[in-house]
């Protein structure tokens, strides 16, 4: 049997090197890019796949104008009042109203500080033309300023400014009755009225009922700017408020006295006071018309007679001089 030739170790190593080279060449050929491109780099990690978001209607919004039933709007410089009136986010659906006070008020409340700190409540009726004469109204005991409402409105309509006061211990003023202090209140209220803007200097009038007539007469007599007095059911002495001395001090200023038959000390006291008057004076005696402001109700024409008497002596603006 013939023996096979024995290969040397060097020949075996060379064969292995040839096989390794062929293997490496095959691998490089497999990693090449198509069309002979360069080999790719290291692959990047894949990004997460997001779900598709919902789409909106791609059609454009309707333009302002006839298409939204507002012909003429949508042009340059013209706004849509319907859309403009809609509230923005966080804004009130409707703006609060702007309160514009009137330049003048025909009737408004007033407060008068008395000497002892009590606040007297009052109503002021402004005159339509200024400067105007003004009247202070003082009610009787047990009543309040509302008993003058009808006369106050008639005076205002004639062109007078009017101040009606709730006396201490009465109406909205409250407090305790004190007629000595009430006399000072009447002086202070009359002086304050004469200094209000729009009041004609020297043309202040006082109108009082019962004890309010006594208080008013004394206040008017002590104020040079008080031009006239109207007294309903006055007395020679009501609760310590006397009138004889005030009549002498009043001098020649005009005076109107109204009283009723069958009213206690009236009409006797009223006739006596009228006899003391030094100037233009008149006394009216009504049959069974009650006391004080009650006469304004029993004699419906009395308010007009009072206003006519005043207009003839202290005329408001626009009224003919006597």
Keywords, separated by commas or semicolons:
about 325 residues; alpha/beta; disordered N terminus
Description:
By secondary structure, the chain is α/β, with parallel strands linked by helices. The protein has a domain at 107-313: Alpha/Beta hydrolase fold, catalytic domain (Rossmann fold). It is 30% helix and 19% strand. It has helices spanning 9-30, 81-84, 149-158, 179-195, 211-221, 244-250, 268-276, 294-298, 302-313; strands at residues 107-113, 119-125, 132-138, 161-165, 199-209, 226-232, 237-238, 241-242, 255-260, 281-286. It has an eight-stranded mixed sheet, sandwiched between helices. It has a two-stranded antiparallel ribbon with strand order 7-8. The longest helix has 22 residues, at 9-30. Residues 1-40 and 55-103 have low confidence and may be disordered.
């Amino acid at each position: 049997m013939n023996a096979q030739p024995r290969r040397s170790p060097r020949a075996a190593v060379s064969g292995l090197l040839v096989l390794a080279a062929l293997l490496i060449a095959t691998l490089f050929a497999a990693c090449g890019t198509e069309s002979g491109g360069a080999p790719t780099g290291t692959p990047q990690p894949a990004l997460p796949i997001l779900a598709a978001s919902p789409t909106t209607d791609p059609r454009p919004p309707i333009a302002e104008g006839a298409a939204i039933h507002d012909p003429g709007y949508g042009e340059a410089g013209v706004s849509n009042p319907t859309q403009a009136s809609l509230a923005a986010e966080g804004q009130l659906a409707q703006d609060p109203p702007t309160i514009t006070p009137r330049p003048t008020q025909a009737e408004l409340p007033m407060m008068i500080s008395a000497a002892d700190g009590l606040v007297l409540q009052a109503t002021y009726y402004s005159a339509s033309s200024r400067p105007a004469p003004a009247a202070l109204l003082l009610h009787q005991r047990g009543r309040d300023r509302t008993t003058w409402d009808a006369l106050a409105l008639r005076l205002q309509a004639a062109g007078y400014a009017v101040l009606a006061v709730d006396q201490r211990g009465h109406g909205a003023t409250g407090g305790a009755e004190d007629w000595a202090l009430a006399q000072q209140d009447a002086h202070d209220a009359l002086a304050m009225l004469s200094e209000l803007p729009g009041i004609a200097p020297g043309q202040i009038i006082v109108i009082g009922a019962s004890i309010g007539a006594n208080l008013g007469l004394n206040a008017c007599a002590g104020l040079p700017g008080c031009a006239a007095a109207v007294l309903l059911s006055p007395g020679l002495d009501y609760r310590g408020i006397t009138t004889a001395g005030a009549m002498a001090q009043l001098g020649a200023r005009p005076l109107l006295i109204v009283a009723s038959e069958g009213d206690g000390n009236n009409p006797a006291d009223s006739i006596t006071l009228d006899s003391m008057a030094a100037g233009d004076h008149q006394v009216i005696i009504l049959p069974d018309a009650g006391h004080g402001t009650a006469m304004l109700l029993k004699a419906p024409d009395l308010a007009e007679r009072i206003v006519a008497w005043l207009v003839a002596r202290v005329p408001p603006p626009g009224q003919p001089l006597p």
